[in-house]
Every structure is written in C-alpha cells, then in structure tokens.
Design goal:
The structure holds two protein chains of two kinds.
Chain A lengths: L26 H4 L17 H12 L22 H8 L16 H18 L3 E3 L5 H18 L7 E5 L5 H9 L2 E5 L9 H7 L4 E7 L11 H9 L4 E6 L18 E4 L19 E3 L11 E5 L2 E5 L17 H37 L15 E4 L1 H7 L3 H10 L6 E2 L8 E4 L7 H20 L1 H6 L11 H6 L10
Parallel strand pairs in A: 2-3, 2-4, 4-5, 5-6
Antiparallel strand pairs in A: 1-7, 6-7, 8-9, 10-12, 11-12
Chain B lengths: L7 H11 L4 H4 L21 H12 L9 E2 L12 H7 L2 H4 L11 H18 L3 E2 L6 H16 L3 E5 L4 H11 L5 E5 L1 E2 L2 E2 L1 H7 L4 E8 L9 H8 L6 E6 L17 E5 L15 E5 L12 E5 L5 E5 L6 H4 L12 H38 L5 E2 L9 E5 L4 H8 L4 E2 L2 E2 L8 E5 L6 H14 L2
Helix pairs in contact in B: 4-12, 6-12, 7-8, 12-14
The chains are: A alpha/beta, B alpha/beta.
C-alpha cells in the first residue's frame, strides 16, 4: 500500500525554490483581511525528492502501452510515437497564449489550418472544426449542429434521434444533453441495423440517426446507402460516431457515403496519448450545407495569412470550449498525419483489420463468437461458454488476463452481447505480441475448465488484489482526511 | 512504414492463418461502390527528422512567443512550473495509460486523482471533487445543469462579470434543455448586488459568481451568499482561480454549493488555451448529482487499501440517456500536473505565488495608472493578479506598436465593449524589471 502524498508531509519542508520578493507591500494593504482565508490550505509540505519518489512509485502500479498489449475494443490503444511528445513539449508551442496577436501565431494557425484540411480529406467532409476536446464533446458539437440545422430550416417538430442498441453510452447521453429524445433501434441477427424496424421508427419528427461505423461489434454497416435514403427522405441527418475510424483510413470516406456529420477521436485513430483518461480531442467534420453551423472560430486563410474566423457567428452554434480546443493534442495528430501520409494511413487500417482477424481466428475455437464473419479492426467474443460450463464470468477472465501481463479487453460491452469481450489489438502490435496474447487467452480458457476457482481469485500478482468497487460506493471516500 | 510491425511476410502469414486470399477478402462487407478508389490527397509522408526540422525551422519561426514579455491572462495564466512536473507527466506509465477502469492495474492513476480531489477540496473547502471536466467554461455549464437536477428550477443567473467565452459555452450547453439564462448587470467592475437582489425570486435555481471575475476584481461573495441563500432552494455556484485560494476566502466559507474553476494555472503550460481543465467540487449530499468521474478509496479482497472509480451509476456508460452528463473522459494528465505542482509548492509555496502575483499586479497597476492618459477603470474594486486600465489610444494600436519590442501589454478589451482599455495580468513570474519595461514602453508608444 502506498501512503498518500499528505502522509509524507513535514512542517516547513518545501519542494520548490521561488524568487525572493522584490516588493514589500503587505498583503493586507492590497486585499482586505475579510476577503483572505483564515486557515492555510493544508497542501503537503514535502521535498522535490519526496514528490519524485512518491509519484514514480505510483507510476509503477499502472499498466501502459509500452508495458504490454492493451486490447481494449473501441479504444484503439495503439502505440503513441515519442517524436510527438518531444516536439510538443520542447518547442515553441507550450508557451503560446490564446489571446496573442494573430501576427505572432502564424505558425500555430497554419498547423491548425492544415489539420482542418487533412481531416476533411480523410473523412470526405467539407469542413472540420478542431474545437471539441473529447469524443463526447465532439458528439455534443455534432448533435448541436443537427439542432442548429433544423432550427434554421424551421423544423421545430424534429424531436427525436435514432440510435442503434450497440452504441456507446455517450450517444444517448449526448442527445439528452442537447434536448433530443432517444429512440433505440434494435440490431438484426447480422449485427446490423434492422431496416424494417428503422422504417417504422422514422417519421417527420426524426432529426437524425447516430451510427458508429464500423459498429462496436466490429462490423461494417453495409446497408448505409439504404439507411441514408430513409433518413434523408424526412430531412433528417446522418451522424457518424468516429470511434472506430481506425478501420476506415483510406478505405472509406464517411462524408462520401451518406454521412452528414461525424466526429473523430484523435486520441484513438491519430495516436495521441490517452493520458490515463484525457485530455483527448474530438474534431467534427460536416458536409457543405452544415458549414454555417460550425463553432466559432474556425481557422481561416487570406492574403494576409492565417486568422481566427468568426464570420459565421450569426449562424454558428456558438462555442463548446473556452478557446480553440486541445491545441497540444492537435499538434500530435498533425505530426502523425504528416509522417504517415495517404499510404501510411491506409496501411494503418489494413494492419488493424489484419491483426483483429488474426486474433479472432486464433481464439474462435476457445470462445464463443456471435457473428461469424470477417471483422474490421475489432471483434466481440464472449464468455457465455465459460459461464455456462465452468461458472467463470467474463469479469474473472478479464482479471486473470491482468496476471498474465495484459490489459483486459473492453468487457460487458456492447450491451447486446452477454458476457462480451471486445478485442481491438490495433496495427502497432506485432505478430509476436498477438501470439503471446492469444496464448494467454487459450491458457485461460484451459484454466476455466481445470481450475475455475483460480479465476474467481484473480488477479493474484497485481499491485492490489481484486478491488471492492461496491464498497467504494457504499462507504464513499472521495478525499483523504488530512491530519493537522 | 512507421509504427507498424507487420512485414510483408507477416502479412502473408496472417492471411494464411485466417484463410483469406487477400486483404480485400476481409473487407467484403464494405460494398465496393462505397470504397475509396484513389489514395487520399495528403502531403507526401515525412520522416521523423523531416517533420522535426519542419516544425523547428518553419512552424516555430512563425511564432514569436517564447521570449516575449507577456501580460496576457483572462483565464489562461503563465505561472512558473517546476521541472519536476514535466518529468512526472512525461512518464509513459501515466501518459499512455487508459482510463483506470481495471482498477488492479491502474492504482497509480487512481491514487493521484484521489490526491488531486483532496487538494481541490482543501483549497475550496468543499467535501467532494470529481476527477475534472474539460475546462472552467464547461464546468460552470455542468454546474448549472446539476443545480437543475437538484432543485428542478430552470432559471439561472449569470453575472455580467463572468468570462464572456464561458458565457458562450454555457449557452451551448443549456439552451436546448429549457434552461433560461438571465444576466445580472455589473456595476463598477463587479456584480451589481442590488440588481441581483431585485432579480432573485423563488423561480431562480442557481446564481453563478466568478471571483476574481473576468476583470480581475473580487466580488463581495459574502453579501452575495446572503441574498442568494435567502431563497433556501437557490444554489450558489462559485467559479474561482485556484491560485488565488492560497490567500482568499475558500468558497465553502461563503456557502457556495458548487465550486468550479479553471485549473490550467496549476502546473500546466498554456498551449494556446488547450488542454485546460475544469475542477468541480460540491457538498457530499449532492455527490450523486455530480457529472464526471470520481475516484474513491476502498479495499481489495485481502483488505488492503485500494482505489476505484466510484458512483459510476451516474455516468453515461451505465445510465446512457439518463446519465448526469455525457462526459466520458476527464483531463487526467492535466490533473496529474496539478497534483504534482501543488505537492511541490506546498502550503507555503502556493501562498507565496499568490502573494507575489498580487504584489506585482498592484505594482504594475500603480505604475501604469501614474502615466498620463492611463487610469484604472475600476478604481474602487479590489483585485488579485489582473486589472483593467484605460488607455489614451485604442488598445489595438498599443498592442501593435509593442510587437517589435516583443511585449504583449495585455488583452484588448474592445471586443468586450471597452474600446480604449487593456486588461493586464501579472503573475509571480514577472520580475520588477519586466514590469518597469512594460511601463517604459507604454510611455513611449503612446507619445
């Protein structure tokens, strides 16, 4: 067990050296006493070495990409190139202020302008905003654009958005946040949209549909043209959740196959680090007719150079972020695209698809797989066989994998597959590491039969044993109690 | 090909194992007419050396910020960041890790978030904090939405002294779900308390207060508390500067119900305004109405102390369209920078940063307002590290004339309704000599 940083505190110790005071005006002369805090904030009093040892000790308790495979479905845990980090951290970018005169920001704005263009080309969209700072905020921006489009057309009756039952939770949550009603569309036996059911659901009140393509089942929605026909026939719009774009680079341009608006997850497809949960970036691309509704500002270019373009302010949905989005994340994605180019990006998707199919093939004798066809960049297997035959749950299997040095797949999602394990190896894994993962899973399948009790106990070799998250809710403990 | 391990031979091995003839077999589900027939129109790929040279030689040449003497603030601040912060956040153990859903192999991330939550509560005086939001703007918006969940009252009052960029974001977040935003006017650079009192009635669900406000001035938080809480249902949302809380009254002391703010100043570089992070804290009795991830302490099966994400039944991956928010991520790595920064600073260090910033800002205000044609716009107000000063020329001209001197004298307030005014931020990083250089340059450029 690690102590918290507060438990290393010793009165009077300091972890930083600050400049001597150059001015001597007492604080009380500048800020009235009654606006000052009476008791000091009890931040820890520790040395720089204390801080380094503590946080490095914590870092050793994490799984991370350089340590081992991270087969989280729909999370695209690919390797994050180190040149991104070095160029972002150790160059001019870190100290830019968002309100600097644009004359002093030309290099940064040029980079953003080019990224807007490159993402538009990759997605086949007419324009891209870089402002949303996460996938969910990209969804929010996209659905706000749909709202703004209908508002501009006087479509006041458009109240509902259709979402397949395999969707990420953010899709319905986003629609609620914007104020739309969510209508769930059941998947058919092939894991695709049930067209007959869709036709029943779509009416004049339909504002749009949100589709993840490929879906969270790792399957390409092959009826997309038909779906687009149905949706567009009532002046509704097609939204694509780009969480799984890693399967489509250079293969399909969503903007050219019927989608009107989509978001990217730069922290997935474009290899910016996940950061233990963020910061991410969720740019949004739109077709021509939706450009007026994009957030302000866009980055524009004219004869004087690059500038922040507010010209569509009257039709824009407004803003979703204080400034221009997660610039430091955008720089990394820019470098990634510039280094891979068209051919490299296509190879990314091809290898992501090859690796996923390879793993599916190797594991299919051992685990049940609902949809028996080639997958795209990920596939869903499940633990129903192990549950039924050995009383071992998917959670047990996931925890056992941790003992073997791997992160678990995404589990219990999508919701429509019982005991689901969604596996996405990504293109950056080698055949050797795919084999190592496959062998670990096969070993676990054997353990399920031979020593199921071992799996209930797992994990055995991690920094802590299985964590009681029910207790975390029942006995809520969100902060450390600092002793004086 | 960079970052792809499979060789042509591996590719053949994989295809053979799968039993497919070619890659195209694998994407048979993609109808041929939907497939892209030509390569994407992107630039030719660059090597690592070429992209490094391009960025260092070209992109960075077109940016003249690094060495500038800058007095820009307005929500994004240039405070000193000790080197140890970057050493920790640069560790792949932290920056390439995923969200800590698998708690057993994510204790590092979970524990630093727990410590971060503790520090935010210590600064604000609140009882529970989440693992962070995207920025202060979205945090205020989410606080308003949370207040509606709590009391079902759909009117919120924003002060005219709230950051205008935040107001734009708040509008995006609230307009579709039937929330009515009312703007309480400002008087002499502060929220007009009498006007606020006149606007308040039992239909108002929340009142937002930003202190220091957009103009850098401290609001009369205690007086606002009294009139807002005269209605027992109405919630007070405070948006605060975390550095200021080393010396200023913690919002819990003026009974703020939800406390949010921009966390960038805590150990994070400015990066053109992103990533930022919004902190979000409240009282325990409202924990279940909170948006975003929360880490809690618990035990493992052997009774050892451990951490896990908690109260997940509020979140989108469980509750879907009934979730408290659509937010999925947090700005985790930014909060790591913050927790390391606050640990290094400690109670004395953060206080020193706040005091020196205050002293230096007041020194700059005093020196500049002594120049002919310059006057503090809000002379009655108490300010922290930022102030507004009127200028004898349009501020845009002053900013322009300072460019060759590599000084950013502050924010042009013209877009915010003050044509001849600059807003000037001074942190502890500015030396007296740099402030004197600004004053001297100001004298010269307005001649």
């Amino acid at each position: 067990m690690s102590k918290t940083i507060f438990e290393y505190s010793t009165a009077g110790r300091m972890g930083v050296s600050l400049p001597q005071r150059e001015l001597e005006t007492p604080l009380d002369k500048l800020i009235p006493k009654n606006q000052q805090r009476e008791r000091e904030a009890r931040l820890p009093e520790v040395s720089e070495l204390d801080v380094m040892r503590h946080y490095i000790a914590l870092s050793h308790k994490n799984h991370f990409i350089e340590k081992g495979l991270y087969p989280l479905g729909s999370c695209t845990m690919k390797y994050n190139p180190k040149v991104h980090e070095s160029l972002v951290r150790h160059t001019c970018f870190a100290n830019l202020h968002p309100y600097q005169p644009v004359e002093t920001l030309q290099g940064a704005l040029e980079l953003l302008y080019e990224l807007q263009k490159d993402l538009a080309e990759i997605s086949g969209m007419a324009a891209v905003t870089l402002q949303p700072v996460a996938g969910a905020q990209g969804e929010f921006t996209g659905i706000k654009i749909i709202e703004a489009y209908h508002k501009a057309k006087g479509n006041t009756h458009k109240t509902k958005i259709i979402i397949p039952d395999s969707a990420h939770g953010t899709n319905p949550a986003t629609c609620s946040l914007v104020g739309f009603d969510v209508v769930e569309l059941k998947s058919n036996e092939n894991g695709r949209c049930d067209i007959a059911r869709l036709k029943e659901l779509v009416d004049e009140n339909t504002a749009g549909i949100m589709i993840t393509n490929p879906s969270t089942l790792g399957l390409f929605e092959n009826q997309i043209e038909e779906i687009a026909g149905i949706i567009h026939s009532v002046d509704a719009l097609m939204y694509m959740d780009g969480a799984n774009l890693n399967a489509l680079l250079g293969i399909v341009q969503p903007g050219k196959i019927g989608f009107d608006v989509m978001h990217f997850n730069l922290h997935k497809t474009f290899s910016t680090p996940h950061g233990g949960g963020g910061p991410g970036s969720g740019p949004v691309g739109v077709v021509e007719k939706l450009k007026p509704f994009l957030p302000i500002p866009m980055v524009g270019k004219n004869e004087n150079g690059y500038y922040l373009d507010y010209s569509h302010e009257t039709t824009s949905l407004g803003k979703v972020h204080s400034f221009y989005g997660n610039f430091a994340v955008l720089v990394r994605a820019y470098i990634y695209i510039k280094m891979l180019g068209a051919k490299g990006l296509r190879r990314v998707s091809e290898n992501a698809i090859l690796n996923a199919n390879y793993l599916m093939k190797r594991l299919s004798p051992y685990f049940h797989i609902q949809h028996q066809e080639y997958c795209m960049h990920e596939f869903v297997m499940d633990g129903t066989k192990q549950k039924k035959e050995n009383g071992v749950s998917t959670l047990d299997i996931a925890k056992r994998l941790l003992d073997k040095g791997f992160h678990a797949p995404t589990v219990y999602f999508p919701l429509i597959i019982p005991e689901a394990m969604m596996v996405e190896p990504t293109e950056t894994e080698s055949l050797d590491s795919l084999n190592a993962f496959a062998e670990a899973m096969i070993e676990i399948a054997k353990e399920c039969q031979e020593t199921p009790e071992l799996l209930h106990e797992a994990p055995l070799s991690t920094p802590v044993r299985r964590v009681d998250d029910v207790r975390a809710v029942k006995v809520l403990d969100p902060i450390f109690v600092i002793k004086e | 090909m960079p970052y792809i391990s499979n060789t042509e031979r591996d590719r053949q091995l994989i295809l053979a194992e799968i039993g497919a003839k070619s890659f195209d077999d694998l994407i048979a589900a993609v109808p041929d007419k939907l497939r892209l027939k030509e390569p994407l129109k992107l630039d030719e790929p660059l090597s690592e050396l070429e992209i490094s040279n391009k960025i260092k030689a070209k992109t960075c040449q077109n940016i003249c910020a690094g060495s500038a003497n800058s007095f820009l603030g307005a929500g994004v601040y240039d405070h000193f960041i000790p080197a140890a912060v970057d050493t920790i956040v640069s560790r792949p153990e932290f920056f390439t890790a995923y969200t800590p859903y698998q708690a057993e192999i994510s204790q590092g991330t979970l524990q630093f978030i727990y410590e971060y939550q503790t520090m935010i509560c210590e600064l604000t005086g609140m009882e529970i904090a989440n693992a962070s939001m995207y920025d202060a703007a979205s945090a205020v918006a989410e606080a308003i939405l949370m207040a509606v969940r709590k009391n079902r009252l759909t009117k919120a009052i924003l002060p005219a002294t709230l950051h205008p960029e935040y107001v734009k974001v708040i509008k995006s977040y609230t307009e579709g779900v039937g929330i009515e935003l009312l703007i309480a006017p400002a008087k002499e650079g502060k929220l007009d308390i009498q006007a606020l009192e006149a606007m308040l009635d039992e239909t108002i669900g929340s009142v937002v207060l930003q202190t220091p406000n957009f103009y850098g001035n401290l609001e009369d938080a205690k007086a606002i508390d009294a009139i807002v809480h005269a209605n027992p249902k109405c919630l007070l949302i405070a948006c605060v500067d975390p550095i200021s809380l080393a010396i200023l009254t913690p919002p819990a002391d003026y009974h703020a119900d939800i406390v949010v703010g921009e966390g960038q100043a805590l150990g994070n570089n400015m990066f053109l305004g992103g990533p930022l992070f919004g902190f979000f804290a409240t009282r325990l009795d409202m924990a279940r109405q909170m948006p975003g991830r929360i880490v809690g302490g618990t035990l493992d099966k052997e009774g050892k102390r451990a951490y896990a994400l908690t109260l997940q039944a509020r979140e989108q991956h469980i509750r879907r369209d009934k979730a408290t928010s659509n937010i999925c991520s947090n700005q985790s790595l930014c909060t790591l920078a913050a927790v390391v920064y606050m640990s290094l600073m400690g109670r004395a260090g953060l206080k020193e940063v706040a005091i020196q910033s205050t002293q230096k800002a007041h020194y700059a205000a005093q020196q500049l307002s002594a120049l002919p044609g310059f006057e503090l716009v809000f002379p009655q107000a108490v300010f922290f590290k930022e102030f507004v000063i009127s200028t004898p020329l349009p501020a845009a001209r002053i900013i322009n004339r300072m460019l060759p001197r590599n000084i950013y004298p502050g924010l042009d307030m013209a877009p915010f309704g003050m044509p001849n005014a600059l807003m000037i931020a001074v942190t502890e990083k500015k030396s007296k000599a740099e402030i004197d250089a600004l004053v001297k340059a100001m004298q010269e450029v307005v001649k």
